[in-house]
């Protein structure tokens, strides 16, 4: 992950990085149960179901159990970023209820982590046609008529990430010298995949193979041995594979999490990337 290398301060990392960045998809919404709801309700006003509220409550309890265990009593703090959509704000309410007021140091609504804009479609059958067309065209670059593509989401998410590093670097997220901060970002399925892409510098092809988080599913990144964030400290190989990470991507997550081992090559991403280009362009790539 780039940390703050693409942000301000001449590319230097902030002096105090958050201990964890936790991504959470909203709980089950009315739109997840019945897609016809979009014919009468704007996307940003779609609510959680009762099941979605319960899912979100359990996610909050799980997150608090992780970050506020007895060994770190009073030391761990949380700061929330939330999409402005109703279903994400309702998810925040349920998750936030698991924490005491002294544990929450801030909440910010952030429009750049909103859902991808699929445009205003009252005809759900037409939307199904566009989604089939997207599969043929390529999911990352396909733009819904009048809406966005995943590439468009990447652009705004990139702006959010740079603002985040800048806020950390300038101490805009204030917490005590002995506190550990956990950033919790409550967002949407595709946006979370694109956030991970931006943070880990994955390719469009790699993101196309990822699965979206389930409702109220949590994906946890924690600082590893060299100050790089990794999914491997909280999620095992089987889980990462289920999410669509390739063996090379999983190996890279382990390198970020743990001291390097002889059998793990730090060049695995660069070499495989050039192998991939060689296959596409029929190039003769020489390995050193």
From TrEMBL:
Q: Which GO terms describe its molecular function?
A: catalytic activity
The record's active-site residues are: 26, 115
The record's InterPro entries line, in alphabetical order, gives: His_Pase_superF_clade-1, His_PPase_superfam, PG/BPGM_mutase_AS, PGM-Related
The record's section on CDD domains has:
HP_PGM_like
Q: Enumerate the residues binding substrate.
A: 25-32, 87, 115-118, 126
This chain's protein is named: Broad-range acid phosphatase DET1-like
Q: Which organism is it from?
A: Nicotiana sylvestris (Wood tobacco)
Q: Which gene encodes it?
A: LOC104221714
């Amino acid at each position: 992950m780039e940390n703050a290398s693409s942000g301000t301060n001449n590319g230097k990392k902030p002096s105090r990085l958050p201990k964890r960045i936790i991504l959470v998809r909203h709980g089950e919404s009315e739109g997840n149960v019945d897609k016809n709801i979009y014919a009468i309700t704007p996307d940003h006003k779609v609510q959680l179901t009762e099941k979605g509220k319960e899912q979100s409550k359990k996610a909050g309890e799980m997150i608090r159990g992780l970050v506020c265990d007895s060994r770190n009593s009073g030391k761990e703090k949380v700061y929330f970023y939330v999409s402005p959509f109703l279903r994400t704000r309702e998810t925040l309410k349920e998750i936030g209820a698991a924490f005491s007021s002294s544990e929450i140091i801030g909440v910010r609504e952030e429009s750049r982590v909103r859902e991808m804009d699929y445009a205003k479609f009252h005809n759900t059958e037409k939307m199904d046609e566009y989604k089939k067309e997207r599969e043929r065209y390529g999911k990352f670059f396909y733009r819904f008529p009048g809406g966005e593509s995943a590439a468009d989401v990447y652009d705004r998410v990139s702006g959010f990430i740079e603002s985040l590093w800048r806020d950390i670097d300038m101490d805009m997220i204030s917490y005590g010298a002995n506190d550990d901060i956990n950033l919790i970002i409550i967002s949407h399925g595709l946006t979370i995949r694109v956030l991970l892409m931006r943070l880990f510098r994955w390719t469009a092809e790699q993101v196309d193979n990822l699965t979206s988080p389930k409702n109220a599913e949590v994906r946890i990144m924690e600082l590893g041995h060299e100050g790089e964030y990794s999914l491997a400290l909280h999620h095992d190989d089987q889980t990462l594979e289920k999410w669509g990470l390739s063996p090379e991507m999983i190996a890279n997550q382990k390198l970020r999490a743990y001291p390097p081992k002889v059998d793990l090559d730090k060049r695995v991403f660069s070499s495989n990337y050039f192998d991939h280009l060689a296959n596409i362009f029929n190039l003769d790539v020489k390995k050193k």
